[in-house]
Design brief:
The chain is an alpha/beta fold. It folds into 2 domains: 145 residues, Aspartate Aminotransferase, domain 1 (Alpha-Beta Complex); 240 residues, Type I PLP-dependent aspartate aminotransferase-like (Major domain) (Aspartate Aminotransferase, domain 2). It is 36% helix and 15% strand. The strands form 3 sheets. Strands 2-8-7-6-5-3-4 form a 7-stranded mixed β-sheet, with helices on both faces. It is globular. The protein starts with 21 loop residues before the first helix and ends with a helix. The mean pLDDT is 95.
C-alpha cells in the first residue's frame, strides 16, 4: 500500500500568513496546557470588549426574514447604495451600485479582484511592510509580487523612486494601504497625488486598501485615493470589521472607480466570479446601511480621551520609557510597529524574540518580517487591550530583553 503523504499545491510554497501561523498555533498549545496568553497578534476588536453598535445588530435582527434566500451576487441593493452614498459624500461621483461588490470581508474581495485581473506572470507592486494577505493573494492568483520599500527612516512612507525602479512591462497594478497596517502610517494628500500620477503615467490599476479609513489620530488626515484618480482604474476596499468593530460579520466591499469606462471587462469578470460563489453572507449585509448612515461612534474612540487614542498613548509612553525599544508613532489604524534597538537586534531577531516572548512571558506578537520586510528587528502589536494590560505587556518585554542588553 502506498503510504506517501498527499501532495499539496505548489502555489502555496511562497505563501505565508504568520499572523495566524506557527506562533499562533503554539500559543493555542500553551493555552491548552493552562497558560493565559495575552494575544496581541490580531486586530480583533470584539476580543477586547469593543462592541459593534447596537443599531447594526438590530438592523440584522429586523431583516433576518429577508436574509434566508441568496441575494444578488454583488450584494443586496440597500448595502451597495449605502456604499455609493458614502463615496459621494467623500467627493467620488462617478460610481453607482453597479460598481460595488459586497464580499465575505475585504479578504475575499482582494482574492476575487486579483483573480479577475491577473494572468500568470503579471506583476503587482505591493508595499513593504505590507498586510501579508496582499502578497499571498497575488501569488495564489499566478502573479509576481514586487515589494516597494516604505522605509522606517521616512516614517514608513512609500519610496516612489524605488517604486519606479521596480517597473517592468509586466507590471499591472499598484497596492496602496492607507492608513497602513502594520506601520500606522497615514499618507498625505500630496504623496497620494504623486502615487496616482505615477499609476496613471504607467497605466497601472490602483488597489486601495482603506479598511482603517476613519482611524486616524492627532493631525493626520485620511484622503480617499479614488478622489484623486481620473485616468486609470481604482478599486477601493473597506468594510465593517475595524471601524465598526464587526469582524465576525464578515462584510466588506470594493468599489470600482476612477476611469470606469476602461474597466468594463474587469467588472464583468468580477461579477462572474462573484456569481460563482453565489453571494456573500446576507444577514451581515443588512447592517451596512445602518452603519454607514448612522452615528459614527469611531470618532469618539480616536480623539483625546477616547479609548483607542488613550491606549495608543500608553504604547507611545511605554516605548519611550523602555531602554530596549523605539517606534515611529502610528498616526492611523490600530497597531504599533515597534523596533528592537540595535544592541538588542544584534543578539536576537524578530522571530526568536517573538517565540521567546511567547514561551517565557506568555505574550503573542507578530514578528515584523511576517509583513514581508527585508529586516528582522521589528514586531507588531495591536493597540486594542486596555492600558493596564499594555503596561503589563511592556513590563514583560523589558524583563525579557534586559539580560540581552
Amino acid at each position: 500500500m502506498n503510504q506517501n503523504p498527499v501532495e499539496i499545491s505548489r502555489a502555496l510554497s511562497d505563501v505565508k500568513y504568520e499572523i495566524r501561523g506557527q506562533l499562533a498555533n503554539h500559543a493555542l498549545e500553551l493555552e491548552k496546557r493552562g497558560y493565559e496568553i495575552v494575544s496581541l497578534n490580531i486586530g480583533n476588536p470584539g476580543l477586547y470588549g469593543f462592541r459593534t453598535p447596537e443599531t447594526m445588530r438590530l438592523a440584522m435582527i429586523e431583516n433576518l426574514g429577508q436574509a434566508e434566500p441568496y441575494c444578488h451576487q454583488q450584494g443586496i441593493f440597500p448595502a451597495r447604495e449605502a456604499v455609493v452614498m458614502q463615496q459621494q459624500s467623500r467627493g467620488i461621483q462617478n460610481v453607482s451600485a453597479d460598481e460595488v461588490f459586497i464580499g465575505n470581508g475585504v479578504s475575499e474581495l482582494i482574492d476575487l479582484s486579483l483573480r479577475a485581473l491577473l494572468n500568470a506572470g503579471d506583476e503587482v507592486l505591493v508595499p513593504s511592510p505590507d498586510y501579508p494577505l496582499w502578497s499571498a493573494a497575488v501569488t495564489l492568483n499566478g502573479g509576481i509580487v514586487r515589494h516597494y520599500p516604505c522605509p522606517r527612516d521616512n516614517a514608513f512612507q512609500p519610496d516612489l523612486t524605488a517604486m519606479a525602479a521596480l517597473l517592468t512591462p509586466k507590471t499591472r497594478a499598484l497596492v496602496v494601504i492607507n492608513p497602513n497596517n502594520p506601520s500606522g502610517a497615514v499618507y498625505s494628500r500630496q504623496l497620494l497625488a504623486d502615487i496616482v500620477q505615477f499609476a496613471e503615467q504607467h497605466n497601472l490599476v490602483l488597489l486601495a486598501d482603506e479598511i482603517y479609513d476613519q482611524m486616524t489620530y492627532d493631525e493626520a488626515e485620511f484622503v480617499p485615493l479614488a478622489t484623486l484618480v481620473r485616468n486609470t482604474l481604482c478599486l477601493t476596499y473597506s468594510g465593517l470589521s475595524k471601524v465598526y468593530r464587526a469582524c465576525g460579520y464578515r462584510v466588506g466591499w470594493t468599489v470600482v472607480g476612477g476611469d470606469t469606462e476602461r474597466g468594463g471587462d474587469l467588472l464583468h469578470a468580477m461579477e462572474l466570479l462573484a456569481a460563482l460563489r453565489l453571494c456573500s453572507n446576507v444577514p451581515g449585509q443588512w447592517a451596512v446601511q445602518t452603519a454607514l448612515g448612522g452615528f459614527q461612534s469611531i470618532r469618539d474612540l480616536v480623539v483625546p480621551g477616547g479609548r483607542l487614542y488613550q491606549q495608543r498613548q500608553t504604547i507611545i509612553d511605554c516605548v519611550a520609557a523602555s531602554p530596549h525599544l523605539e517606534m515611529v508613532t502610528p498616526m492611523g489604524a490600530m497597531y504599533a510597529f515597534i523596533q528592537l534597538k540595535k544592541n538588542i537586534a544584534a543578539k536576537i531577531d524578530d522571530q526568536a524574540f517573538a517565540l521567546q516572548l511567547l514561551e517565557e512571558k506568555h505574550v503573542l506578537v507578530a514578528p515584523g518580517s511576517s509583513f514581508n520586510t527585508d529586516y528582522k528587528d521589528h514586531f507588531r502589536i495591536t493597540m486594542l487591550p486596555d492600558s493596564e494590560t499594555l503596561h503589563d505587556v511592556f513590563g514583560r518585554i523589558d524583563a525579557l530583553l534586559t539580560p540581552l542588553a
